[in-house]
Design brief:
about 300 residues, alpha+beta, Double-stranded beta-helix, 8-stranded mixed β-sheet, 4-stranded antiparallel β-sheet, globular, binds succinic acid
């Protein structure tokens, strides 16, 4: 769809349950207000946006991301990864120099998760830019949590109202213990923020299931077995293929996603190939559920 009144961008939906390409914009150049509004509206509609064939350095990546708000500092890493000179950039890479990892996550599979949801204020969005990609593997999957919520049976939706979930901060999405954290043996004792299971998006006023990571999650106030059973059921529902779309990376792809209504994961890839991504995150808000959304 061409958008009148903008600098000529075209929005091409993936045809899956989320995701769209934005064609016709050079993100290394200043973006006028009309084009920015069109991009933001498309983001709210499609949850994940992809911009192909971009040529960005770190300042350019940060400049684009800052149009959406203040940026977060990179999260605490699992190992002794080298820090990027820009504190708002997280290096996602399997490349080692002198045997030392230069980035996060290595070549591992990353499980479905929401970025930094273990914080009280959770990033509203993440922006990931591809500098080097492997010939195969390392695809990033996204899942539409509006649709996951909307397709739950009515009685289960009612049962979730008012429930809150603990979001464990001790492990990253590859399951590695972060520096300075202890092994969690009882999810009720896990460090991390507590957020509503149903999250109302402040811009679209739509409700989404809101999860962090499955491991060490627990529902506040439920006995451990009941919490595990309900979380297993909800996660099995939310991670179905019908809600997902996978990004197959090319160098120069910039993908941004909305952490308030989309989860993501990453496939593993051959450790002998190289993958280098720079990620930044748009500072967040406190997840909330608005009961008024149920009245409609
Ligand atoms: C992540 O942000 O969880 C990793 C995504 C990726 O490396 O594709």
């Amino acid at each position: 769809m061409d958008l009148p009144g903008t600098t000529g961008i075209t929005i091409v939906p993936t045809g899956a349950s989320l995701g769209a390409d934005i064609v016709g914009v050079d993100l290394s150049q200043p973006i006028d207000a009309a084009t920015f509004t069109a991009i933001e509206d498309a983001w709210h509609q499609h949850l994940v946006l992809r911009f192909r064939s971009q040529q960005l350095d770190d300042p350019g990546l940060l400049r684009f991301a800052r149009r959406f708000g203040e940026l977060d500092k990179a999260p605490i890493h699992a190992k002794g990864e080298v820090e990027d000179p820009f504190p708002e950039i997280t290096v996602m890479s399997n490349i080692k120099i002198d045997g030392k990892p230069t980035g996060n996550l290595g070549n591992y599979e990353a499980e479905w998760h929401t970025d930094m949801s273990y914080n009280e204020l959770t990033p509203i969005g993440s922006v990931l830019y591809a500098l080097e990609v492997p010939p195969a593997g390392g695809d990033t999957g996204f899942s539409n949590m509006y649709q996951a919520y909307a397709s739950l049976p009515a009685d289960l939706k009612r049962a979730l109202v008012g429930l809150q979930c603990k979001h464990d901060s001790s492990r990253n999405s590859a399951g590695e213990l972060r520096k300075g954290f202890k092994e969690v043996t009882d999810p009720r004792e896990a460090p991390g923020a507590i957020h509503p299971l149903i999250r109302t998006h402040p811009a679209t006023h739509r409700n989404a299931l809101f999860f962090g990571r499955r491991r060490n999650a627990c529902i506040i106030g439920l006995p451990p077995n009941a919490s595990e059973d309900l979380l297993d059921k909800l996660w099995a529902h939310a991670t179905q293929k019908r809600f997902a779309w996978y990004q197959q990376w090319k160098v120069g792809d910039l993908v941004m996603w909305d952490n308030r209504c989309a989860m993501h994961r990453r496939d593993a890839f051959d450790p002998n190939s190289r993958r280098l991504m720079h990620r930044t995150q748009i500072k967040g808000d406190k997840p909330r559920f608005d009961p008024a959304t149920l009245a409609a």
